Amino acid sequence: MYHDLYQEILMDHYKNPRNKKNLDYLSDQETHENSLCGDSVKIEIDYDKKTGMVKSVFFDGRGCAVFTSATSIMTEVFENKPVEEIRKKIVEFISWLRGEGNEPDLYGFEEIKAFEGLIQYPVRIKCATLSWHALEKELGKL
Amino acid sequence: MKIIEKTQLSTNVRMDFPILQRKLVRNNDEIPLIYLDNAATTQKPQVVINRIAHFYTYQNANVHRAVHQLGEEATADYENARRLVQKFIGAAFPEEIVFTRGTTEALNMTAHVLGQFVKAGDTILISAMEHHSNLVPWQILAEKNKASLRFIPFDENGELILDDLFNNWDDSIKILSVTHGSNVFGTINPITEITRKAHEHGCIVVVDGAQSAPHLKIDVQEIGCDFYAVSGHKMCAPTGIGFLYGKKEWLEKLPPYQSGGEMIKSVWLESSIYNDIPYRFEAGTPNICGAIALGEAIQYLSKIGMAKIHEYERNLTNYALEKMQGIKGLKIYGNARNRSSVISFEMENIHPHDIAQILDHQGIAIRAGHHCAQPVMRQLKLSSLARVSFYFYNQFEEIDYLVKQLYKLREFFN
To answer: Min CA distance, B351 vs chain A (Å)?
Structure first.
């Protein structure tokens, strides 16, 4: 079988991405791009201002298996979570992949273990973190 | 189905490249390295590696100023390298060869020194298939001189559409800069014909030879172009060395690119007299060892023979094209009649980065990305492509292995 990175879990999210929908209404200015490969993503946040909770996260974009699965998993992880907690978890996830921190607790989502093998491929870390950075920026606009 | 003969170039060439003997470790097993990223950079034969070691071990000195023995030896070998380049590309005079860091610097230099020939309202013509290094320097010049930049389009085969251009020539075109070989489609452009027709209108012709000089016999006098830029590292020489060929009558009337030592004849506090060509364009201590190693690489390639290299690579490429076309869902971009050993492709439902990563796991090195040609990608409505590119040391068996892995990849993803 292929590399850790491409285990079943990632392939499942790649072939059946969760919370993916057409976001054509968002402009180019709201598109987040990986300048290395040209892949791009748009993010939509369903946010409840009163409670400070993100109800759901949606994305639109085409990219590699690493990008797609990391994005799909992200949208699942942050369903019905408070904004401030999400911000913290994003930082933890990114520093973990950069080899600067421990594996974060993402509400018990075991899928993220699949990305552990990525730490040895610095070039591909950008694929996994593109949407996480994008979500961070979009949260800043709320 | 065509039958492509698995010809042999020379059984020994692979042994000339120590890195090709390297084994990679995957899952605790040793597997061979299959290097198919030659359009990015090529591997170095032992003779070139030895030449670098020899220079720094026994010969190191600066050129053109020392009267001591080491300085004279270094100068003699550096100038000999210039003559080897001259012969390699069929230039009329050694002083038509300016050593540079590579094609990028050669093209930047050309765009810079030709600045005075581009006036407001003039047009600089390039093609829509250029590498960023033959696009951005002209964008900068056009902006600075208030000139406009126009593009020769390409068709679905990755060939330039030239008829309209020459039938309705626009006299505002002062410079035409075009690539000899496409790093995306593998197209070899009809550069001799393009040059002849552009010259009929008094247009300056610049050629990006980065993807052609390593694979074809180049004769700049036959092509007739005014400038021709080449990188050493794509033809067995080290990185950081390349050259610009410029016709003597052009170089002689052009100003320096950078200034400092070497490029001057005499200096007063207020002004200087520029040196003769090619030194006017080689400010500062040059990459002496790099140039000498490039000379060594050229001798190595010439011994095998550029015609033989071209023929062998053509067989290899045709073989790969035929095998790859048989893979369902695999689409090849570029179908030029005259092509080099570059094959860009995509696979249904598999991102190029995933193709490259998984092939790497099998020991196969290929390129995935926009290939420094983002306008090309945009026209194709793609963000990236996978690319394999061969050199004369690649083997038919390596292509068989690649194809087998591509079939496995397709199965895994579908």
So the answer is: 5
